[in-house]
Amino acid sequence: MTYRAGWIHYTNVAPILDPLTLPDGVTAITGVPTQMNAALLAGEVDIANISAVEFIRHADRLEALPDFSVAVLGPVYSVNLFHTVPLEQLRRVALTRQSAMSVALLEVLLRERGLAPTLEVAEGEAEDLLARGYDGVLRIGDSALREWYGVVGPLTPETTMTMLPHQGRGITVTDLAEEWFRLTGHPFTFAVWAYRKDNPPPPELVQAMREARRGGLGHLAQVAARHAQKLGLPARVVQHYLWNFRYHLEAPDRLGLHEFAALAVPGHAPLRFGPGGERRHVLSASAGTLNP
Ligand SMILES: C=C(O[C@@H]1C=C(C(=O)O)C=C[C@H]1O)C(=O)O
């Protein structure tokens, strides 16, 4: 029987998906986060990298791979609130239809500051929406990365690459993952690879994903160069963007995930992960290499 995968195809998943060869009997479709969340819950796909908040909301039915995540510690650069007034003065914020996670994160961050602007879905470029009367615009993924660079760029080779800028053209870009770090000191986990708990992926698929990730992270400059061309961004900016991600759902990423779960979905069912994640740092005596 065919096992169906659904991939969110943003650039931040490229180090895993670009080198991936699907094993026989596995098919894949792609889409934006809200499409993949819905496809997994409707049974149209069997595994997907979904918004972590949907994994939390449906923890009674879902399980996640124990060693795969899209997480960051500090700024992420692609989950951005573009705004023209200080956060405390926000009145009307445009949300994107593509994202479940960033909306939930924004709600938590606003609540923690005691703020309650009107939130409404409105698609389009952040700068256009700001010109049309919104004072904040939430955007995610590749378009948010491109729009962030449109606001702060161009960056010269002298620009420090440890922390990239967040202001320009009269617009402030509040990076939600950085705000989360300020609030908690923990990583923020945006996505996990989830499946219905009675329908785990074949081991060959997980093995192929681990091999692909090892290859992609080992050749990050090439992955970045390829996507920089597609995005119309400098390769060094895309490389910085990609090396910033934490793809292994390690203990700090789980801590951030659990903390977010308690704040965003109080009373959620216990989060469940498949077996095997703890083995990541075990030196395999037989192979003489880190496993996996
Ligand atoms: C950091 C990002 O993570 C993505 C954001 C998601 C969301 O907002 O629902 C879902 C999956 C993640 O891969 C991004 O694409 O900008």
UniProtKB/TrEMBL annotation:
PANTHER family: CHORISMATE DEHYDRATASE. Catalyzes the dehydration of chorismate into 3-[(1-carboxyvinyl)oxy]benzoate, a step in the biosynthesis of menaquinone (MK, vitamin K2). It holds the Pfam family VitK2_biosynth. Its EC number is 4.2.1.151. Pathway: Quinol/quinone metabolism; menaquinone biosynthesis. Keywords: Lyase, Menaquinone biosynthesis. This is Chorismate dehydratase. Belongs to the MqnA/MqnD family. MqnA subfamily. Signal peptide: none annotated. It is an enzyme of class 4 (lyase). The keyword Lyase applies. It comes from the Bacteria. The keyword Lyase applies. It catalyses: chorismate = 3-[(1-carboxyvinyl)-oxy]benzoate + H2O. It comes from Deinococcus carri. The gene is mqnA.
